[in-house]
Amino acid sequence: MASASANGLTSTALCTLVLSYYGIGFALSYIPGSLYVSFFLISIAEAPSSLLVGLLIDRLGRCWLILGGMVLSGAACIACGLAEGAPVLQVVLAMVGKFGCSGAWSVLVVYCAELFPTALRSLLSGAIYQGARAGGVAAPFVFLLGSASGESGEASSSYPSG
């Protein structure tokens, strides 16, 4: 029973991370300025995240790095949404969000491989990654909810209505 709850929690965490990861990229069209420069900047935030996680994973432990990455990503994404009118700050916060998301993802991949016994590892890892893919599938639809509800900014005009 313990592995079923661990499987569900890990799958939910990966789903949330993937939803945030892709959501940050989709939401860049709402930030004023060059979409290409903004996307480049949030993309380069991933490399230091992986390096830092590699250095800290044995010192801090997997759970603390996952928790820290998810909290950092969530706080940065919320702050990015609240920082309207400050495009530079929004891009920096999106970079921090992507940094946290990418770091937590890197640790969760290692954690999933270590969590289950060898006989069940491939089956349960597949189930966990299925939850992660659900987040990837849901991300564009969550992004489109803003344009459907009329809450989005200038990006909503790029989608056909009805």
From TrEMBL:
Record's GO cellular component, any one?
membrane
| Segments crossing the lipid bilayer | 12-31, 37-57, 64-85, 91-113
Q: Where is the Major facilitator superfamily (MFS) profile domain?
A: 1-162
Q: What domain of life is recorded for the organism?
A: Eukaryota
Keywords on record: Membrane, Transmembrane, Transmembrane helix
What are the subcellular locations of this protein?
Membrane
| A Pfam family that the UniProt record links to this protein | MFS_1
Keyword Transmembrane helix found: yes
Keyword Ribonucleoprotein part of the UniProt annotation: no
Record InterPro entries: MFS (IPR011701), MFS_dom (IPR020846), MFS_trans_sf (IPR036259)
Which GO terms label this protein's molecular function in UniProt?
transmembrane transporter activity
Principal localization?
membrane
Tell me how this protein sits in the membrane. Multi-pass membrane protein
The name this protein carries in UniProt is Major facilitator superfamily (MFS) profile domain-containing protein
Query: Which organism is the protein's source?
Result: Gonium pectorale (Green alga)
